[in-house]
Amino acid sequence: NGELDAKDVTRNVVLVPIATIGCGKTTVALALVKLFGWGHFQNDDVKVKKGRPQAFADTVSNMLIVDPVVIADRNNHQKRERAQLIDDISRNVPQARFVALNYVHDRSNYDAIRKATRDRVLARGDNHQTIQAGSKSQDEIIEIMEGFMYRFQPLDPSEGPDDVFDLVIDMDPTLSSRDNLEFVIGKMHENYPALFQDVEMPDDVDLDAAIEWAMNDYKPDFKMD
Ligand code: IDP
Fold first, then answer.
1. Does residue 173 sit in helix, strand or coil?
2. Candidates 40, 41, 180, 215: which one to mutate for ligand 1, based on the most atoms within 8 Å of Cβ?
3. Which residue CA neighbors atom 17 of ligand 1 most closely?
4. pLDDT tier at 130, thresholds 50, 70, 90
5. Complex ipTM
6. Residue with the nearest Cα to atom 23 of ligand 1?
7. Which end of the chain has the lower number of beta carbons within 10 A, N or C?
8. Which residues pair with 171 in a beta bridge?
């Protein structure tokens, strides 16, 4: 990588959410798929029991053969997960570029983030890749969410693995997915205009419709355990 100017990039871009549960990453990802036909792979769709991280990275790598941009949809909330994803994809696709969808988690903002993410997850019940709310008590769900928040390691571009990101898009987990979607598209368009050369840019109505679809029409494919 580093060969092409960002403005000339037309493929091999991996979007890496850095998030906890309920930030809206799957919703934003699905809306991007709907709008631009990008690739999207969710961690919980990994079917193998052993070597799951490697299988996740390999699937994302394979999708880059046909999809110009692929969203690696898992929390990636720890440096070791980000290092594994970046290393394994780079081995398969040396020219891959990584963009962080960085749902900023400042410890000082944790209460506001808790409120936003819990409200969403508890209100929407079963509509989630990691938490099948219907089969768990509210306390169990909150405990799982707290675990992710406790373990969260903020992005640090001054050292590995986070110094590899070609672009970091800072997002606010307390904002609506509609607002975060618009922000991501704006930043991607600004940095990688050639990715959008053959598409008509969505207007407000298109963005609303994509989020509406992501939140209401899409149903996750639950794993069987
Ligand atoms: P995650 O992938 O970060 O864990 P999602 O699954 O996208 O988060 O969202 C968690 C729940 O919140 C889902 O049921 C989703 O439909 C809902 N949701 C996502 N974004 C919004 C929003 O902006 N307002 C209200 N509910 C939302």
1. coil
2. 215
3. 120
4. low
5. 0.99
6. 176
7. C
8. 103
The ligand 1 atom at the shortest distance from the C-alpha of residue 30 is 7
The CA distance from 45 to 35, in Å, is: 22
For residue 199, the one-letter residue type is: V
Q: Is it the case that residue 114 has pLDDT exceeding 50? A: yes
For 139-166, how does the pLDDT look when each residue is reduced to its tens digit (9 = 90+)? 999 999 999 999 999 999 999 999 999 9
Structure tokens, 17? 């959410």
Residue with tokens 């969410």: 145
Q: Answer whether 7's CB lies under 8 Å from 193's CB.
A: yes
Could you tell me the pTM of the whole model? Answer: 0.94
Provide mean pLDDT across the span 120-127: 77
Q: Ligand 1: residues whose CB is within 6 Å?
A: 19, 21-27, 120-121, 124, 127-128, 176-178, 215
Tell me what pLDDT residue 217 has. 80
Work out the end-to-end distance of the chain between its first and last CA atoms, rounded to an integer number of angstroms.
39
